[in-house]
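Hello,

Following up on my earlier ticket. Below are the three sequence lines again, exactly as submitted.
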Amino acid sequence: MQLETASAARGVTAARGQRPRSGLRRKMNRAREPLSAYLLASPYLILLAVAGLIPAGYALVESFEPSSGLGELQGHGLFANYQRVFSDYRFDSAFLHVGETLLVWLPIFIVIVVGLALLMHQRPGRLSRSVQFILYLPGALAGIANFVLWLFILDPTVSPIRFLAHGFGETTLDQVAQPAHLPIILAAMLIFLGTGTWIVIVFGGLNNIPDEVLEAAMIDGASSWQIAWKVKLPLIRPWIGYLTLVNIAYGFQLFLEPSVLSQVTHGIISPTWSPNELSYTYAYSLLDTGGAAALSVILLAVTMLIGIVVILRSNLLGEGRS
Amino acid sequence: MRWHHRRTRFGVALVVATSIVVAASASIAGAANGSSSSRASSSLAGAHITILADTTREPAIKAFEKAYPSVKVTIETYANTGNNGLEQKFALYNQAGSGWPDVFFSNGNDLAWASSSKINYTANISSGVPASLQKGFGHNLAVCESGGKLYCLPNDIGQVVLWYNATLFKQWGYSPPKTWQQYESLSLKIAKDHPGYFTGLAGDVNAPDRYLWPSGCPISTLLAKNTVKIDLKAPSCTRVESLLSTLLAAKVVSPIGLFDTDAPTQVGAKLVMTPGASWYGQFIFQADFKDPAHQITASLPLHWAGEKAGTGDEGGGLWMVSRHATGKDLAAAIAAATYVTTNHKILTTNVTFPAYAPAQNAWIDGLGKSGYFADFPQLKHALKTAASEIRTDTNYTQYIPGNIWSQTVTAALSGGQSFASGWNAFGTQLDQQALSFGYKVKQ
Amino acid sequence: MSAGAQALASAETPHPGKTRRRITVGGVARVTTLCVVAAVFLFLLVTFMLAAFRTRQSMTSANPLSGLALGNLRYDWTQIRGFDSGLFTTWYKNSLIVCGGGTVLSLLSGIPSGYALAKLRFPFRRTVLMVTILMMVIPNTVLVIPLFLEVEKVHALGQLWPVAVIFGFFPFGTYLAFIHFETALPKELIEAARVDGLSELGIFARVALPVSKQAVAIVGFFAFLASWTNYFLPLVLLPVGNQQTLTVGLEQLITGSQLYDPSGAAGSPVQLYMPQLVFAAVLQTAPLLVIFLIAQRFLARGTTVGAVKQ
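Thanks for your patience. The regenerated structure is below:
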């Protein structure tokens, strides 16, 4: 959720366009400025520490502390917890599941988002605006409500589109929600939820293309399809890159959907399907805090790496532009 | 993430139960504990205990409250326990250093973590519960015993018998099989002569209890507190593997699960026979499948030819007492656990088969009063006999074989893969999960 | 979020489009594609909402209109409310407390810090900004287990306040406010205030705050949305039934329903099937719609952000 909103802001930054570089500042009041600034920022900085930096640091420390009561699995040395979760038979599969889901979801998602944005941008009239509005609506159903919607759609005993499932010979939710189908099901859920938001971001990118460029292309006699393909698409590549990276990071946090699906399918879907579910199992079922911490640190490292790439490759800082 | 069927299914349909069993109880009411409890009650004056149980247990707890007016009782109920809900709670109480319930009703799988060194909740109540009452549980008490200590009192058992449709059997000229071998050949005969009918289901969390437990297949056999025997290559396992494999291939054992939403329509009235727990009669055949009256009955549990009788147990609730309770509260907590598991009136109105032997006959008679079952004398004999034949070489562990079965065998079957691939995955995952909980695994 | 974003987008429609309107194959394909996609989305949403008005029995029909009646909502509600003796309203209250508290905190922390980052110079400004953006891009759920370890350490598991505090940490809000003040508050205004002798805090209170209505609306909206839909954090930090929030509660309704646990829920005094679950989900999203309506006035103005382009 936050990621999507973050990306909305990205569109926003882009829309700001060029900002004149800040000029001179008065020298007076300089001395009091940092103090006041810290005073104003202090509530945020405290929260940042309490809810961001301290838990991350604490997890890091805890991940090197030995856990007790694990029998032969305890392991030795500083990296015992890491060794244990790495060698956990569910570790590979959890990350593999995320990989599979990303592989199914992202390409379709990107094509849909970019394609629709280009179509709308071609003639941003009333039709485009209404379609855009409709595609946003699922955003209000984020989270568990979106899940209920998909339960309704997927369960052949209640679904309005049960003929699809019946076409595959599937008559129960358990048959539809097979582990092998999960990447497709999650892709459908995530596409439904995210398309509207991300179209806006890509749209922001399209709006950022200088009018002169498009006019020049038109004067050269390019058709609207050629303009979309040869002019607009290359120009919004950074936005597409951003969309891809942020959503890869998003894929690593999956928890709600596979977890509740596991419960409604009588456990056919493994309760440790995603990395986050696995770390939850470590924390609450195995009561292995060291292992849970190690898993969190791994997840944190992966997503932070993606985050750093995003920051370096985009101008979210607002000042990186030349 | 615990699969809550195990816990909640005993609690099914109080409504159904009362109509069936209530009649039996009136005459026995209170006779056993009436006078003694009121005496004990006064010595417990001032005790205040908290009892955590599912909603189905509420009437039993209220009955205790009534019998022990000097004990103040706070009832906390849980409805749904997905997502490790209960374990989370106890981890939380431990961490806070307070908040534990004095008495906790749950099942064997929860006993496994509740008595583990990490949660370490259960008190040894072997000296608190009168020996005469302990004796009444017979070997059903084994579930609660570990290293000479007593960590709980069993509430009920789900001893596996052979349920069958007497009307169809009569019509087709069959007699109920006595051994698993006969079960297999009769199933294949039914597959051939009456295609579309079923003699079992394999796709639910209870399947290992119905099929593997009676065979003595080691999937959760505790050799020591933290050592478990798992060996799917043992003959006691491979024979079940081949049985299920054959019957699934013949499409006479259904790949779906007993609790699936579509079980009543897909299997339902087409279920000719199945091994199953004592509670199947009311909850599966009568309430869920809505089979007509005077058709369903049960015979003695199946056994493997040439081996002595032995059957499985599909679940069973139990009552634990907190080791954090002290003084009068501890005494009151033990009294509560004892009362609800041995009081005739409560046990005979319960929906599930009492673990306490002296109440069993009355419970079965209550079942007979409903007039739903065919051939009641035979059913009574089967339930009574099976109750004493539950094998004790399958134990409750922190990993739950039924859940692993769902993720492997059920998933394979509903996903169109072979039973063999599901079975193999079942074996691998049993080992892996046992290890991940810190058990030593021996073959 | 989508709403705000939409407002941004629709606020600017400058386009060097062709003025002639000829019907072309491409044009037809474009209109068809857009209409089909919109129809699919609408179909899913509408049939879903309608399901709350249907009866359990009518769900066996594939026709999304079968069994519709307004009175069914009343029945849905009695069933939902009856679940575990009225736990649903408790969940609702808990959600309002933690999300309301979180939103207030996110505003109290986000607006001043965004201002400081945008308009004041201080050491480590860039670092704070960088960390903020990094925190924004990292999915917040990867921090849940570390937060669990931290909250466990201070013995506050099962209490509502840590959840509200954690919801109050909303780096995206700080970032939004940062953009707002950077673009909407002319430097000259601040300089002038300094010349008039106002202190830095005075400038924030008298110059910046009065022009931050937009930022407050947007930050509040997004903060509430993010916390209201959060599932993992309350699940982990509030393990006890009557302390849980609506998202976790809804999950319990689903898994505790007869639809997905027919035998286990058979003894339950309430009947929960798809119509009731849908209605519960709709009730869960209701506050988001209210907040959306309240915030829309501000969002629709195009936000500072959208307005800046030209």
